[in-house]
Amino acid sequence: MKKTLLITVDFPPGIGGVSTYLKELCARLPKEKIVVLAPKSSGSDEFDNGQSYRIYRKKFFSTSPLIWPKWLHLFLIVREIIKREGIQQILVGQILPIGSVALFFKWVLKIPFVLSTHAMDIIMLKNYRRKTWLARRIIKHARKIITVSEFTFQALLRLGADKQKLSIITPATNIYSEPAPDKQTEIRKRYGLEGKKILLTIGRLVKRKGHLEVLKSLPEILEKYPNLAYLVGSDGPEKQSLKEYVEKFNLGNYVFFTGEIRKEELPSFYRIADIFIMPTLELDDGDVEGFGIVYLEANAFAKPVIASKSGGTANAVIDNKTGLLVNPLNPGEIALAVRKLLDDQNLSAKLGKQGQERVFHNFTWEKQSDLLINALS
After folding, report:
1. CATH numeric code, 175-362
2. What is the pTM of this model?
3. 241-265: per-residue pLDDT in tens?
């Protein structure tokens, strides 16, 4: 593996799928071969001290009105790190603006770069002609391109990517093997869940995740299962509007907002759930789910999942094998899927078990990091 500088705007302690993806892969690369450049944030010093590889924290974007583009001084930062660390290639965490920096150093210093793409960074380009033009040039000159799903793979082909340069390295999970205290009884008491069937969603409270679509389906589900509880994990900008919907339609006895779930409690939330549900949407601005690691996490605990027929979720969930795929804009279809799994416990157990076996066999960070090492060699 060539000595590599990962430049990314998404990295822990920041939360989100991209941050987790990059963190888990970096942790399994040879420590002397990977260097990270990421923005400084609250808690970053504590996180960095716990890692075996070198992390630089710098301010990426200028606040001066006299400097344009805002990330121009990033060139100087990267040049210094390349010289100090003996960097042989750059790993681009986001195609824009980081890809522009990498392209510059390929032209000036002949340093190759590898792209790591996810979903929003490429799908939302369609709304910007200039950005699309620049992204096409970056894609053309990348040595290799890594992406997270067949959906994003096809999007890259439409942007002119050479198929021979492309490889899919999906997210993974080891959550089932990490030590964690058993909090199931405590969580059940906290939300009054004894004797209830439990739906669970864990995902940032943004429109794309489909929380509102689940709420719309609840009245039909409750007709048959009045003992249902819906746990909404995490936090985000849509929290207030979701709470207002719950109040307006008298769902307060059935819906519980947990806030951000602590890492040590996360396995227990998965264990108490009967079904994991997250019917993600493809928004008008192009925002879409690129993969969905939470589906794998739920499957890892042998839970059946309900996801949507959009974006990259088809790589994370196999319809009628590890879960059910639905039209997220059809509350009746969502309700039907939930009732189907609650009605047929044998089917529910079968999908959960098959999902668990698939995760154990195909989606470990150790296996994915081996693929990344190969791509960076």
Report:
1. 3.40.50.2000
2. 0.88
3. 999 999 999 999 999 999 999 989 9
